[in-house]
Design brief:
The structure is a single chain. The chain is built from no helices and 54 strands. It has about 775 residues and is mainly β. Among the domains are: about 200 residues, no CATH class; about 120 residues, Immunoglobulin-like; about 120 residues. The strands form 15 sheets. Strands 1, 13, 17, 18, 22, 25 and 26 form a seven-stranded mixed sheet that branches. Strands 43, 45, 49, 50, 52, 53 and 54 form a seven-stranded mixed sheet that branches. A five-stranded mixed sheet has the order 3-11-10-5-6, with no helix packed on it. The protein is globular, with a radius of gyration of 32 Å.
């Protein structure tokens, strides 16, 4: 067996031909399934079932995708469609509105048809290879508030007594080398480990059953396996598509064995992609390179051969090649924290530290280590005066070490000193560090991508002046209003104030100034607190600002979280150099979770459905990225959105679509195995809520009050096993839309509440700015 790497491996000389994702910010939303073309549907035909090839049929092959299209429905009414197993148990369900023509265009109802849990309530599953599937009827059940109650049978075809007809090969990815260990759609990027340090799901194995014993008279003794970038939305692999010019990884000459029924199979799972192999890594995948299909080329001609329709019914019944991923994604590789950038500051003892003493006579060292740098990074250390961009010492250019494929999958920087008083030749303390008013410096690393790394280095100096304290411990960092148990009271204390006189003075808390000049007015800066205090003797301890009283500071940002303490000794409202005391420069108030919205998964979801993506440009995404038509606004008539064709050739399907991928990073969410059937199906609930009334706090109720759905009621949509990767181009709101601003909420665990760390919200601008970064952000707006 030969292992080769695809024609794109001209990039391998950089060591990151599969790691291009490190060059771009992760974009959270990605379409993971395609609806394909929309068929004309006679009005007198209420339901049409289609397979993953978008062929109308009532017989579905193992691991196919079942699409359902409805017609003759009441306009703009909600309908529920269920897939039921032979015992009547629910496998999967969706709830959608019929459009302006009484049509629900093709929507995926059951991904991975025939996938069966390994046991009741189990989280693992595998294809049902039992011999009774072909003779048991499954059912589609449609109900609506208008009295609709309709049932349509369908069947799953696994075995076929006429081997010459060559039923569809059953091909699926798994994370185990053990036969029948389970089905897997989501693997993890290179270098991922579990909590015990063992490798994560970084090995992609393939199981294959029901392979043709011969093709055109030539016996099948071995097959070729291709991993290819997944096809784009609304697209399928067509008969005759070439493979040899598109693959990422391929294995040639994989041996097959007799399965005992006249067909061929893999005797055991075959390892087809080891993501921990330094020759085939995938690092920091994004939506542009995280999704793949697998093709088993049975006749080894480098072309996808779907097969033939022998009986002329419009449905392929004589298959050749096998595929994991047809109309939906075969598998994805998730982005984990394994290769995220990180920085570490250590002192002379090697311990992590963020402080330094305030005198040249105090020997100390601080060093910076960087790991998982993006490709092409040229990091530079700056030690800025706190809350400024003024260098306290000359910048330091860091030496980047290249990735070695083992201990370092990405470039890195060894520990580099940026503060050192142990050598006259080494970097010295910043200028003015012995000045008591100096309280902190900002260690900032530039040249590492779109966002700089910044860490505050606090200066520890003797208590010879007014020092901020929380009443117990001296600190330069306080907490925003409403932080329970936090540092929300700013005190000052002194041992020797250095001030004289028996009169009184005023202590001002004012926004931080980069410089104080003689004559600067204090009153205009007094946006926080001015407290009159006696100057006779020491002040001991004085409360100057209670953030839980007045004035309050909620959700501080870099623009308003820095403050100075100024003692106006002569009480003239003006800073007088040599008289007034700059007691503390640049203490900060940090943004806690006290007033934040819930810790949700923020992602672009609302889409117009007009995509612009050419799938074979997979590795040139920087020039031709996927465009899933995420928008910040839609016109109320919806005519700027994608439409399909419904009954009698009339336009159908205008509306806002749902497009998402909550599994771009691993461990973000857990979809319960919410099907009562032994067959595997999962679904989520989708709400559109008015941004003016929405409550995005943790555990807020969905579907009522301020979070009531404005688009005819919540939509229920199936998601793909393990990937949990959203819908096709299914409308979540059909026109006309009401002018206003809205959020899209995906209730992943379907508990009717906003669950932190689990549920998704489209509270993201098209440029990626989230509501957590800018409180004015909404999911989308509707304009006239």
């Amino acid at each position: 067996m030969t292992t080769l790497y695809g024609p794109k491996n001209t990039m391998a000389t950089t060591g990151r031909w599969l790691g291009l994702g490190v060059l771009a910010a992760a974009i959270l939303g990605v379409l993971m399934s395609g609806c394909g073309k929309i068929r004309d549907l006679p009005v007198d035909k209420p339901i049409t079932l289609l397979n993953g090839n978008m062929q109308e049929t009532k017989q579905f092959d193992m691991l196919d995708t079942l699409y359902v299209q409805l017609a003759g429905l009441s306009v703009n009414q909600m309908y529920t469609v269920q897939a039921l197993d032979p015992s009547g148990q629910l496998i999967s369900t969706l709830s959608l509105l019929a459009d302006e023509n009484g049509v629900i265009p093709p929507a995926a109802l059951w991904y991975d048809v025939g996938l069966r849990k390994t046991a009741a309530g189990a989280t693992t599953s595998q294809p049902d290879t039992g011999g009774t599937l072909s003779v048991q009827a499954f059912n589609i059940h449609v109900t609506g508030n208008d009295g609709t109650d309709y049932t349509e049978p369908f069947y799953i075809v696994y075995s076929n007594n006429n081997v010459g007809q060559q039923p569809r090969p059953v091909v699926w990815a798994t994370s185990s080398a053990t036969r029948d260990a389970g089905f897997e759609n989501a693997f993890e990027e290179s270098g991922t480990t579990d909590n015990l340090g063992a490798a994560g799901k970084t090995k992609v194995y393939l199981e294959a059953r029901h392979l043709p014993a011969a093709v055109n008279g030539a016996a099948t003794t071995a097959v070729d396996v291709y991993i290819l970038p997944a096809k784009g939305a609304g697209d399928v692999w067509n008969d005759g598509d070439t493979l040899g010019d598109k693959y990422v990884i391929r294995q040639l000459g994989v041996a097959v064995a007799d399965d005992g029924s006249g067909a061929k199979e893999f005797a055991n799972p075959v390892l087809i992609w080891d993501l921990d192999n330094p020759l085939t890594p995938l690092i920091n995948p994004t939506e542009n390179n995280n999704s793949y299909d697998i093709v088993v080329d049975v006749n080894r001609n480098g072309v996808f051969d779907l097969g033939d329709d022998l009986n002329g019914d419009g449905v392929t019944d004589h298959y050749v090649d096998g595929i994991d991923g047809q109309g939906v994604i075969g598998f994805i590789v998730t982005n984990t924290p394994a290769n995220d950038f990180f920085a570490t500051v250590t002192d002379a003892s090697g311990a992590q530290s963020d402080t330094l003493p305030d005198g040249q006579s105090n020997s100390d060292q601080l060093a910076l280590t960087l790991d998982n740098l993006p490709f092409g990074a040229a990091p530079v250390i700056h030690l800025y005066q706190h809350l400024t961009t003024t260098d306290a010492v000359p910048p330091i250019n860091l030496t980047v070490q290249p990735a070695n494929g083992t201990t370092h999958l990405l470039d890195y920087v060894n520990a580099t000193l940026f503060v050192d008083t142990t050598s006259a030749l080494a970097v010295q303390y910043p200028t003015g560090v012995t000045t008591p008013a100096t309280v902190a410096y900002d260690l900032t690393v530039t040249g590492i991508g779109a966002t700089n790394y910044t860490k505050t280095i606090k200066v520890v100096h003797p208590a010879t002046a007014l020092i901020p304290t929380n009443g117990t411990v001296d600190t330069q960092v306080f907490d925003e209003t409403g932080t329970g148990g936090g540092n929300t009271k700013v005190y000052v204390r002194t041992v020797t104030s250095g001030l004289t006189g028996g009169a009184t003075a005023t202590v001002y808390v004012v926004p931080h100034a980069t410089a104080w000049n003689n004559g600067d007015r204090l009153s205009p800066f007094t946006t926080q607190t001015a407290t009159t205090v006696p100057l006779a003797g020491d002040l001991n301890q004085l409360l100057v600002w209670d953030l839980d009283a007045s004035p309050q500071l909620v959700n501080p940002t870099a623009a308003n979280n820095g403050y100075d303490l100024v003692v106006d000794a002569d009480n003239n409202g003006i800073y007088t150099a040599g008289v007034d005391l700059l007691a503390s420069l640049g203490f900060s108030v940090r943004d806690t979770t006290a007033n934040s919205i819930a810790n949700l998964i923020f992602a672009n979801i609302a889409s117009g459905g007009v995509f612009n993506y050419v799938w074979w440009d997979h590795w040139t995404w920087s020039n031709n990225p996927r465009d899933f038509d995420y928008r910040d606004s839609f016109h109320a008539n919806g005519l700027d959105t994608k439409y399909a064709y419904g009954g009698a050739g009339t336009p159908s399907g205008y509306g806002i679509k749902a497009v998402w991928n909550p599994y771009l990073r691993s461990n973000w969410s857990v979809v319960p195995a919410n099907t009562p059937s032994i067959y595997d199906g999962q679904w989520v609930d989708v709400y559109i809520v008015n941004a003016a009334t929405a409550d995005l706090s943790a555990n807020a109720a969905l579907g009522s009050g301020g979070n009531a759905d404005v688009a005819g009621g919540k939509k229920t949509m199936p998601v793909q096993r393990s990937c949990w990767n959203g819908a096709c181009q299914q409308n979540i709101w059909s026109p006309n839309f009401t002018v206003g601003s809205y959020f899209v909420i995906v209730d992943i665990n379907r508990d009717g509440l906003l669950t932190e760390g689990v549920d998704m919200v489209d509270a993201v601008r098209q440029d990626g700015t989230t509501i957590a970064q800018d409180p004015s952000v909404v999911g989308f707006s509707v304009v006239p």
